[in-house]
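TICKET: design request
STATUS: open
ATTACHED STRUCTURE:
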């Protein structure tokens, strides 16, 4: 084999390895990508089935219940227009309360209940992520126009 052919072969192998590594990185990235949705978007079916996503809003007052095992918690998240029931097994953050902001990450089950793998609470009285505030404002405007 001529040195020129060896050089082309090495370049081809290097490009194939680089392409394979890029494909693996992009695949891992897409598997870990989590999108934020509102309860209204979930109700409209805009959430990908079988994929993990985050839903944010306010914890509906009076919706927080605990099972006898002490670990499983049921609550409802609302964006003032729609609600989404959530089930979470684990310790809730200290700041998690009814009528306060929260974000839950998980997957929908067949009954439309979010089975959460993680729950985050709003960290102080005045802060709300811009995406959550915009989504709640849009849902509230939509509810007002439908009345």
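STATUS: resolved
RESOLUTION: sequence designed for all positions
ATTACHED SEQUENCE:
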């Amino acid at each position: 084999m001529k040195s020129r052919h060896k050089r082309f072969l090495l370049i081809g192998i290097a490009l194939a390895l680089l392409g394979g590594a890029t494909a693996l990185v992009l695949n891992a990235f897409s598997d870990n990508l989590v999108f934020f949705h509102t309860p209204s978007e979930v109700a409209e079916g805009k959430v990908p089935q079988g994929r993990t996503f985050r839903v944010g809003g306010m914890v509906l007052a009076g919706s927080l219940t605990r099972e006898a095992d002490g670990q499983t918690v049921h609550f409802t998240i609302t964006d003032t227009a729609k609600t989404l029931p959530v089930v979470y097994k684990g310790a809730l953050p200290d700041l998690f309360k009814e009528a306060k902001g929260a974000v839950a990450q998980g997957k929908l089950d067949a009954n439309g209940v979010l089975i959460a793998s993680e729950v985050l609470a709003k960290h102080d009285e005045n802060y709300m992520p811009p995406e959550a505030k915009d989504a709640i404002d849009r849902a509230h405007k939509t509810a007002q126009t439908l009345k």
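CLOSING REMARK: The mean pLDDT is 87. Helices lie at 3-32, 39-43, 130-146.
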